[in-house]
Every structure is written in C-alpha cells, then in structure tokens.
Amino acid sequence: MKIATYNVNGISSRLPVLLRWLDETKPDVACLQELKAPQEKFPEDAIKEAGYSAVWHGQKSWNGVAILSRGAKPEERRRGVPANDDDEQSRYIEATVDDVIVGCLYLPNGNPAPGPKFDYKLRWMERFSKHTQDLIDSGKPVVLTGDYNVIPTDQDAYKPERWVNDALFKPESKEAFKNILAQGWTDAIRKLYPDENIYTYWDYFRNAFGRNAGIRIDHFLLSPSLEKRLKGGGVDKQVRGWEKTSDHAPVWIELKASH
C-alpha cells in the first residue's frame, strides 16, 4: 500500500499538476492539504476520472484537507480535531481505507511568533496530541500525515540558523511535536533516512529549489503496528520543479500487506 501526502497550495490552480502526479506515481492513498477551496468547489469529477474516490473538508480561500483513495472508498471517521468544535478552520480529516486509519492534517503555521497565531498553533497541537494519544491507545493501525508546519530538528533545515525566529522552528513547536512522537509514533521518513538531509518544501523566492535550500515539514507518523510494515518511502522532488507547481513536493511511504 502506497500512501502519499501533498500540500497542493490551491487545488483549483494546481489541478493539472496534481492529476499529472497522480497519473505518474499512482499512490493508493493521497492526502492533500491547503485546498483553498470551499466544499462545493472540490474537483470531484476530475479526481474520479483519475481513478480516485475522495472525502474532503473544504474552506473558502484557506486551508482545506482531503483523502483520496484508488481502491476502497475512504470511509470518513471524523473531521476536525476533538474538543475543537468551534474552530472554523478546516485542518483535519480522518478516514478508514482498507484496514488502515488515515489522518490527514494541515497544522497551523503560527507566524508571526510570538502572537495570537502562534498561540493558536500551540493550542491546536495540544488538542491534536490528546487525539493522537487516543489513537495510539486504540492499538489500531494508524498513519497521520500532512503538512505539520514543524521543522523537528536542525537536520531538517538547509540553514537552521535562519529559522530560529520562525514559528515552525520555535522550541515550543518542536517540543509539542516531540511529545506526540513520544506517545509511540514513528517518524517514517526519518526512520528510513536517519542521516540524510531531506526536504519537502522550498520557498518560491531566491531560487530556493535550485539551491536545494529547503526544510522538512511534511511528515508521516506511524502507529506501532504500521511501523513494522514500513518498507520504503521518499520525496517526489521532481514535482517541485514542474511548471506552476506547489512550493511543497509530495512525500510517500510504502507499507507491506498486513498478512
């Protein structure tokens, strides 16, 4: 089973890029973030034509998350993080695909920090961590993937010193991410490539992609039973070089069958 995550940075304007990537790489499950489209503007027909069924949580102009599946239809379990029902920002959707629970998230950016946006980010992570603990306690196979807007360590940034005042790299953000991992989750890409500098996002400015001046903020967290099934993964870096593309590249993992 191949599961991918991709922050598309606007599904309407990037639809040709998304469809080309789906056609070329054919993930079984694709989690999308930053749809930037209201619920009714999700391109369901084009996605269906590409061979995928979908569940999505849209929002006008901002945010938005979706789970696409090529085989079994994703069965939605929840949208939004628990105890966050008054939150109008569409940042989380969860579905069962085959035997796996898939959570797709777009964690708040939090800039400028300090400030209300950073406070919101930390509150969101706190509520999310309660849910992740419940998922771990369930013992079920779970993958939580998406744009976490957290640079976990110095190894995950081209020049870490340039990020010290950024919400993505603030000690509080890194600590919150570390606390979630400590519940028993595995950072799949880091497990596969413990010593490599791997990036998933490159700014549009200053030829960041050409210089490979990136950061790693799109992550896969696996529950213990899925960690045992992890057999491969990587970044579809070439997609970041396509015309009219997102500033993120798709990231993917491959899981062995459960039996």
Outline the structure in words:
- By secondary structure, the protein is an alpha+beta fold.
- It has one domain: Endonuclease/exonuclease/phosphatase (Deoxyribonuclease I, Chain A, 4-Layer Sandwich), CATH 3.60.10.10.
- 23% of the residues lie in helices and 24% in strands.
- The protein is built from six helices and twelve strands.
- The strands form two sheets. The protein has a six-stranded mixed sheet with strand order 3-4-2-1-12-11. It has a six-stranded mixed sheet with strand order 5-6-7-8-10-9.
- Helix 1 links the parallel strand 1 and strand 2.
- Helix 3 runs parallel beside helix 4.
- The two termini are 12 Å apart.
- The mean pLDDT is 97.
- One of its GO terms (molecular function) is DNA binding.
- Its cofactor is Mg(2+); Mn(2+).
- This is Exodeoxyribonuclease III.
Secondary-structure element pattern, one letter each: EHEHEEEEEHEHEHEHEE
Strand content: 15-25%
Helical segment count: 6
What portion of residues is helical? 10-25%
Shape, principal axes of CA atoms? globular
At CATH level 3, the topology is Deoxyribonuclease I, Chain A
| CATH superfamily (homologous) name | Endonuclease/exonuclease/phosphatase
Strand order of the largest sheet: 3-4-2-1-12-11
Low-confidence parts:
none
Number of strands: 12
The largest pleated sheet is described as: 6 strands, mixed
User: Span from first to last CA?
Assistant: 12 Å
As a whole number of angstroms, the C-alpha radius of gyration is: 17 Å
Structural class: alpha+beta
Reported CATH architecture: 4-Layer Sandwich
Mean pLDDT: 97
CATH class: Alpha Beta
Give the tally of structural domains: 1
InterPro entries: AP_endonuc_1 (IPR004808), AP_endonuclease_F1_CS (IPR020848), Endo/exonu/phosph_ase_sf (IPR036691), Endo/exonuclease/phosphatase (IPR005135), ExoIII-like (IPR037493)
EC number: 3.1.11.2
Domain Endonuclease/exonuclease/phosphatase: 4-248
Site (Transition state stabilizer): 149
